[in-house]
Amino acid sequence: MKLIRAAAGTGLLAALCVVPGQAAPGQAAPGRAVAEPPAAARQAASLVLDGGSFSVADAFAILEGRPVTVRLAPAAQERMRRSRAGALAALERGGQRVYGWNQALGPLKDRPLDPAQAERFQRNVLRSHAAGVGPPFPDGVARLAMVIKANQMARGRYGVRPEVAQRLLDLVNAGVVPRMPQIGSLGTGDLQPQAAMGLAMIGEQAPVRYRGAEGPAAAMLPRAGLARTFTLQAGEALPIVSGSTTAAASFLDAVRRATVLAGQAEGAFALFMEATRAERGSLDARTHAERHIPEENAVAARLRELVAGSGWMTEEGRRRLDPANYEPRVQDAVSVRAAPHVLAGLWHELADARRALLREANSSTSNPLVFRRAGGRYEFVMGGNWDASVMGHLADSLNAEVADVGVLSQELSGRLLSPRWSYGLPANLAGGSPGLNSGLVQAQTVAAALVPEMQVRAHPAGTLSRPVKDGQEDHNTMAMASLRHLHENLDRLEVVLAVQYLMAAQGVDLIAGRMAGLPLGAGTRALHAELRRSVAPLGDDRYLTPDLERVIGLIHAQRLAPR
């Protein structure tokens, strides 16, 4: 696809992150971490699908709510027409029983279908499989799922008409979003949410959203200027529900969110280093080069840039708090020295996920597939390309890294409370007299309360397969459960990082007077100033929930992402 320039979690964020004077995130069903940019800042995008060049950047543009128009490349349309004609010719020659074309599905796969039943069977497939429940996928994920599905169809291996893919794109272009429930998929193809998408595209009673209103597709499609109904022909319903396309769209959303949070975690750590006047040696390029991990080298380089020019992270800066009793620190705790390695683990998993998702979006993931044989004839091949094992396990691995960053962040914010562990910061980061004022101790407890939840949700759901459907589907990847847990933990990580930012900034302010004449690093100074534009330093104790909510809002809006 060429991009021509011309935007589920648990509800945790929605509950915690209503910033005074700011509406809860609109895309947010429930709790998505990256705020949409202002409408004026969103560039329109025109996408041309050819089945082989869809990019992660294209996906992010859709997820960010950017206005988009999408169409099939002419060559892709012709490829689909030839494949469709070849598939129908193969059936007419007879002899091959084909799953979902002239045979029923699942445990009923041995039941034949005659041609007269084909049209009714397509509707029944969508109706019977649209059994999902729970909150819907966010609009961006639903739109992206339709675009990826159309791009996969454009490869010409599904045997569907180009009109089927174009109907999905017509919904995208018109701004119609199917309501696709999140719960029901076992990672053996996203049958339930994609069946809901299919019912919407053919104009049944399944709900869709259009211009802020929700109603049955049969009523809403004409309001969007689309034909009320669309008729699927033989073999065209199964490719809509088959394949883990919605999992791919949700995973891309998680990668987008985690990428932003990974950068903000680096900023929070750099501000922590300033507050504790940390040893700069742990960032030495020579040390990291000897580990031969590219992501680690990159993290250390960005941290060096953030603290460049800091006078706080020097012997003079460390001596300032207690000159009479100062002794060289030698080296910081493990959580400080190893932070670049921990953060690099998250970036490493993100890179692996991007590579897998790029393949996924440009692959044929349905069953059966249609191939052209030597001599020009086409044949059906049945297999398991809908399986989401790779994505599911990568989501589990990414979730483990997200949880580990949460653990690290909570450990660092905990160090800031202790004069001994923080090398002289006031106890509890109290702005007035410790004892009379309790400071930020309970804000840190918020992070401590969330980290065990992150650790529990980081258990790999991909190890929990169970057989269903009379043994026909006896191994299931549970990829959608892995992705729901990942999104929930991204919600939690926002809050945990907000606690670290709030506390590190307070630590800086509490000792700023004694550090007079010594500058913060260029990057950390900018992050501190950005935070202080929304939250004042803590003097005497005050109501803290609004402070924490404002910092969560800054994280959510990417305002604390290092520039």
UniProtKB/TrEMBL annotation:
Signal peptide (from-to) = 1-23
Record keywords: Thylakoid included? no
Matches recorded under Gene3D superfamilies: Fumarase/aspartase (Central domain), Fumarase/aspartase (N-terminal domain)
Q: Name one Pfam family in it.
A: Lyase_aromatic
Keywords, A to Z, come to: Lyase, Signal
Protein name, entry field: Aromatic amino acid ammonia-lyase
Give the organism the record lists: Actinomadura luzonensis
